[in-house]
Specification:
Length: about 290
Amino acid sequence: MELRLLATFEKVADVLSFTRAAAELGYAQSSVTSQVRALESSLGVDLFERLGPRIRLTEAGERLLPYARRMADLAEEARTAVAATAEPSGPIAIGTMESLTSYRLPPLLEYFHHRHPKVRPALRPTLGDETRRALRQGTYDLGFLMEPETEHEGLESEVLATEPLTLVAAPDHPLADRTELSTADLASTPLVGTEPGCAYRDLFEAELREWAPPFLEFGTIEASKRAVASGLGIALLPRVAVAEELAAGTLVPLPWEAPFTLFTQLAWRRGKRLPAHVRLFVEQARRLVSEQRG
């Protein structure tokens, strides 16, 4: 079996689309189709069921997929071993979210820009569920997550840091002079937040669901901070994202502790053998991100 055919099969199996696989591999769709048919012919089995515009793996395809991945990983390991003394290089597709991209990752990206310019991180702005799905499908190489859970089906993950959260308000907000607050005290106060699917927004909203206070959705952290500073409501945000505003006094912390803990994590597909430049990125993320303090 040719590695080229197995790699094409693996990509089609990951995305379940000949058209999308062709686009991601840089092939014509006819080439992808002919390569899969050549592999099926050499094995004497059908690997995909064609269901009109959709496809799915046959039982034979399901059995072949883990072997294809192992052979691809071994081929990458061999290439890495042969080129062990070469300058690390290559692209890395990384799923991440705004709070991490803007406030946790700049030192890491700066390190690679200056020390390893041939390593090319490409950040894809996605939230947790979408990032995990893209990792399982092989669309992303790595994914940064901020979640209360630290185990994810089909993925390996490493906790880089506990992510402190702070409830913030404008200095003249009615709750700003309180010395303590219960969850019920927040019931009549408008909430400001980012888009649904963001873990801390969803958990905060669920915590207050009994009282159903009005929730103003501003999409991004920067827009949310400005809305809070303008007196439109209060927001629960990562402490690292509001550190400058707290220091300047344009926002103030409220005395309420979130009853949940979030962890910043780095994840990749379980069983995937990471190339040398991706392993280097993981090592530096472990060092630089975990050293930061919210």
